[in-house]
Amino acid sequence: MPRASRRRGDAAQRHADTLRFVLFEARPAGLLFPQLTRASGLSPSQVRSGLAALRDIIAENGWPPLIWTRADGYQLGAERAALEAYERAVLTEKLTEFRRFITGTVAPHAAAHPRDKWVKHIIAQLNSIESTLDLVVSS
User: Fold this and answer.
1) Residue pair 76/57 in contact by the 8 Å Cβ criterion
2) What is the 3-state secondary structure (H, E, C) of the chain?
3) Is CATH 1.10.10.10 correct for 10-78?
4) Is the pLDDT of residue 1 over 70?
5) Do 83 and 65 form a contact (C-beta atoms < 8 A)?
6) In angstroms, rounded to a whole number, what is the distance separating the alpha carbons of residues 11 and 93?
7) Beta partners for 75?
8) Is residue 28 very low, low, confident or very high in pLDDT (cuts 50, 70, 90)?
9) What is the pLDDT of residues 9-27, one digit of tens each?
């Protein structure tokens, strides 16, 4: 079930429709953020809220996904290889975030309070998440 965006007002919906139209016209190429801003006639803030709403709308309707790559920018309905590369990049980023959180916050907490039930629980859960993400990224 898709999460509800904080940006689901009427304006965000209109911005999402505008962005979907612009991105659909640009297919199969993508648009970098400045290009998307210029092509849509929206402000950068409106593009950001429109992109958030568009991701939710795409999930609700089962439409082809919206991805972002450094080289091509935002794309609708990318091919399988591009989708897999995007998913791996996002998972690698999340794995790095988790590892930094574990080593920078949770490990010092565990060292300071080794008998704390909460910290033991969170370490077990985070280690499980880290292992799973590592398996997915490595495969």
Assistant:
1) no
2) CCCCCCCCCHHHHHHHHHHHHHHHHHCCCCECHHHHHHHHCCCHHHHHHHHHHHHHHHHHHCCCCEEEECCCEEEECCCHHHHHHHHHHHHHHHHHHHHHHHHHHHHHHHHHCCCCHHHHHHHHHHHHHHHHHHHHHHC
3) yes
4) no
5) yes
6) 31
7) 67
8) confident
9) 899 999 999 999 999 999 8
How far apart (Å, rounded) are the C-alpha atoms in residues 30 and 24? 9
**C-alpha to C-alpha distance for 24 and 62, rounded to whole angstroms:** 16
Instruction: Give the domain ranges of the chain.
Output: 10-78, 81-138
Structure tokens at 102: 């574990």
pLDDT band, residue 4 (cuts 50/70/90):
low
92, two tokens: 């690698």
CA–CA separation, 85 and 129 (whole Å): 20
Contact (CB, 8 A) for 3 and 56: yes
Torsion from C-alpha of 68, 69, 75, 79, nearest 10 degrees = -120
